Predict the structure.
Amino acid sequence: MASVVPFSQRERGDVICLFDVDGTLTPARRTASPEMLDLLKQVRQKAVIGFVGGSDLAKITEQLAVHGQNITDDFDFCFAENGLTAIRLGKELESQSFIKWLGEEKYKKLVRFILHYIADLDIPIKRGTFIEFRNGMINVSPIGRNASVNERNEFEAYDKEHKVRAKLVELLKKEFADYGLTYSIGGQISFDVFPHSWDKTYALKFVERENFKEIHFFGDKTYQGGNDYEIYEDPRTIGHAVTKPEDTMAELRKLFNL
Ligand code: M1P
């Protein structure tokens, strides 16, 4: 990996800024703008930076490593799947797995229930990949993850009115009450399912060890039920609620006099 200035030699090396990805560094599921990437470089010269995304590392890489570079070259900390995939200065940190935690039998029951439910669901269109199996979670999408950008936008609007995801989440909470699972609607077409406390605060355990004086977190879904809520509210972080990437940039310029 490219040579990196040690944290201790940065002007504010005792400060870390952690960023949600969709809606905070980039528009939902899109790539980061050149202005954002440039500003992040400037911030990194002064402080320590990292992202904490719900998506897997491959998807976040598509969004943030827009010149085909290695994502770990541009961020000191990379936390994908809420930190279940964790990388510090290019080196992978320990991780856990959803399937090991839940067990195959319970997992099969959950998948069977969800797929039956989605099969019977009458929504305007369906595409493919209704459950995506990840290391630290599963991601469930009633329309399917193969939806195009237009189809995503249409589903999001439809879901606002018809609450397709919220209804399924409520049902799963009742049906699998003993599973100890959290359901988080973080994006446009899907929701994430993971064990209680494997929300974005999971990533903080890796950051805490470094004894930063300030841990700033920037996110757009900081309201209760949003997937940034827990880390934004956590007493260990200084929360910044933003509504779009331009907001994040304005906050960063203020914070670091850029
Ligand atoms: O980062 C927020 C969410 O982004 C995607 O959601 P969707 O495809 O519904 O827009 C998913 O990767 C999801 O896991 C993630 O939480």
About this structure: The chain has two domains: 5-83+198-254, 96-193.
